[in-house]
Amino acid sequence: MQISPAEVAETLAMVSQQNLDIRTITLGLNLRGCTHEDVDTVAAKAYDRMARAAERLVPTADQLEREYGIPIVNKRIAVTPIAEVAAATTASDLSPIARAMDRAAQAVGVDFVGGFSALVQKGASHADERLMSSIPEALATTDKVCASVNLGSTRAGINMDAALRMAHVIRRCAELTADRDCIGAGKLVVFCNAVEDNPFMAGAFHGSGEADEVINVGVSGPGVVRAVLADLPEDANLTQVAEAIKATAFKITRAGELMAREAAQRLGYAQGILDLSLAPTPAEGDSVAQILEAIGVGTCGGPGTTAALALLNDAVKKGGVMASSSVGGLSGAFIPVSEDAGMIRAAECGALSLEKLEAMTCVCSVGLDMIAVPGDTSVETLLGIIADECAIGMINNKTTAVRIIPAIGKQPGERLNFGGLLGYAPVMPVNAHAGSVFARRGGRIPAPLNSLKN
User: Fold this and answer.
1) Where, residue-wise, is CATH 3.20.70.20 in the chain?
2) Residue 392 contacts by C-beta under 8 Å, 6 or more apart in sequence?
3) pTM
4) What angle separates helix 160-176 from helix 126-140, to the nearest 10 degrees?
């Protein structure tokens, strides 16, 4: 499909007035050629590969930003899950690889690098075990590295042994970075049904079915959608609301398609997916919560919120797939508490609870994202939250995730401040009635009947 000058002009108006941006250009890199039995050799080879391949990523993105006038907020790298790359190493600590990834990110000027990851939905290899054990040290000693672990899938069920282990890892990440508002846990996400072409952090990694180098782009535009809904008459019915969102999502996706096409062509890499996710920022007006309130919900978290979010998520996807044949990743609406000014206000006034957020994850793009909980939250409670969210993803054949941050030394009503796109997170109360027996049974929750599709 050709992109007309009129579409470009309309997009520029969205940029100047409604906070439209390209949230990220993410370079996916295959690191499987970096394997070696010595961990330091793996680290050196990973650094060289990343530094060479991403050398022109930031300059190219900056040039596109100047030419088209559309902000590109983040430039990122996602690599092959490091547990796979490090399978031949004999070292128990894989954090030297993470530090090499961090140095490479610094050298080429990207904002984040993802892929310190393992996929353990059906079982964990020795390399997976070492990777999970290395995550706290890796995230505590790096600035830009993000980690993820896939704990379950509709096909495999949920690996509850790994889920309990990751509950301990999350708490340890928070403890090791308590002097930095527990940011280590903010760079770690656990998944069910993780996708292999996600350009968003902290869950981005480069999947096994991808080319050696791929450009994936994530577009964001909650401010644009909110502005369109604000112009609708109050008596517009919900079908009209959905149609307005679809039309807006189409226009936003067209802007992303242009930037993805140009970036891939100029870098000489394969064009991957275009992820149309309404990813909010702490900026006023750039909020998914405020979209839900513009649809008619009194305050985000109140009755009707889940239904409004379902309408929004579906309309965004329908509009996006008409604008590009490469829509993928997650695509829909994110509901990260710390990154959304409206979500923060709703949580602080008590309208938005952890339980309501869990219900909303049944119909949104991902799951419980950037949620701060009291520092004394037990491992059993963390495990229960993770298991509940994985179960939603497994049964509904969708991606769900948990990025939860135990706020060490803090209680409900206090805050963790991260700055930048990560914003600040009010510490939310949790239901503390988790059972220790359930948490420690282990084993695997079997795959559901709807996994049998052949």
Assistant:
1) 23-192, 221-439
2) 192, 358, 361, 362, 367, 398, 400
3) 0.91
4) 20
Exposed/middle/buried for 310, CB within 10 Å: 0-12, 13-18, 19+? middle
Contacts of 148 (CB under 8 A, 6+ apart): 114, 116, 117, 188, 189, 190, 191, 194, 202, 203, 204, 205
The dihedral formed by the CA atoms of 175, 177, 180 and 186, expressed in degrees to the nearest 10: -90
**What is d(CA 353, CA 357) in angstroms, rounded to the nearest whole number?**
6
Q: Can you tell me the distance from the alpha carbon of 95 to that of 134, in angstroms, rounded to the nearest whole number?
A: 6
Question: In terms of residues, how long is the chain?
Answer: 454
The C-alpha atoms of residue 296 and residue 113 are separated, in whole angstroms, by: 38
Report strand pairing: 157-159 vs 145-153: antiparallel
Look up residue 144 and give its two tokens: 């830009």
| Each residue's pLDDT tens digit, 179-196 | 999 999 999 999 999 999
Top CATH class, 23-192: alpha beta
What is the CATH architecture assignment of 221-439?
Alpha-Beta Barrel (3.20)
Report d(CA 197, CA 9) in Å as an integer.
30
**Which residues have CB under 8 Å from 60's CB, separation 6+?**
263, 266, 267
Between CA 247 and CA 80 the distance in angstroms is 36
pLDDT (tens digit per residue) in 67-111: 888 888 899 999 999 999 999 998 999 999 999 999 999 999 999
